[in-house]
Specification:
With 201 residues, this protein is mostly helical. It has 8 helices and 3 strands, in the order ααβααββαααα. The chain has 2 domains: 118 residues, Winged helix-like DNA-binding domain superfamily/Winged helix DNA-binding domain (Arc Repressor Mutant, subunit A, Orthogonal Bundle); 73 residues, no CATH class. Helices cover 66% and strands 7% of the residues. α1 crosses α5 and α3 packs across α4.
């Protein structure tokens, strides 16, 4: 029979989770990005490029929520990437609040370079761990995260808990009603694809 964890064990677990998250942020999201992108973009800007790669239509408020910044800061982030020829921006003809963002060829190359470097690094780190062990660890963290999110957040808030790692299978989304950007973007992308197909018929 297993006993409930003590506060000390809970603190130890949270400390380990924090160290892990910090290591991922420092090594994968920062240092690897600096090396792969050669200082062209910040982690926040790379996050925006990856978002744009998923689907192309956003309001400024969407971008601000995603980056967790003000509308003014989001506008500046988009402007910087446009000036660096990594993004192309076109205002929607029917709704001026909506802007269509597209990766330029340079933006696609930069994102691809980073993603390839990231995949190689992660594979070299995680190769020593069995798939089943990683799956169980993921499920445990997801269940704990869902409980924390459920107790501390407004379910209508944009979630973003997976950050740049956009998860198709997200237990947090399954267990807690969340406003998931990834899910919204995928739905919008499918709708545009369907409209395109129907328009050709």
């Amino acid at each position: 029979m297993t006993s409930n964890p003590s506060l000390r064990e809970i603190d130890d677990f949270l400390g380990s989770a924090h160290v892990f998250a910090s290591a991922v942020t420092d090594i994968i999201d920062q240092r690897l990005l600096e090396k792969a992108a050669e200082g062209q973009v910040t982690a926040s800007q790379m996050k925006l490029l990856k978002l744009v790669a998923m689907t192309d239509s956003y309001t400024l408020g969407d971008v601000a929520q995603f980056l967790r910044v003000s509308n003014a800061a989001a506008s500046k982030a988009v402007d910087r990437l446009v000036r660096r020829d990594l993004l192309r921006r076109i205002e929607d003809q029917k709704d001026r609040r909506v802007m269509h963002l597209h990766l330029t060829r340079a933006g696609q190359r930069l994102l691809s370079t980073y993603e390839n470097a990231r995949q190689r690094k992660l594979q070299s780190i995680f190769v020593q761990f069995p798939q089943e062990e990683l799956r169980r660890a993921s499920e445990l963290l997801d269940r704990l995260s869902a409980d924390i999110v459920d107790h501390t957040s407004n379910p209508e808030e944009l979630c973003l808990k997976c950050g740049i790692y956009f998860r198709e299978r997200c237990l947090v989304r399954q267990l807690v009603p969340r406003n998931c950007f990834y899910k919204r973007a995928q739905k919008a992308s499918r709708q545009r694809t369907n409209r395109g197909i129907n328009g050709k018929e």
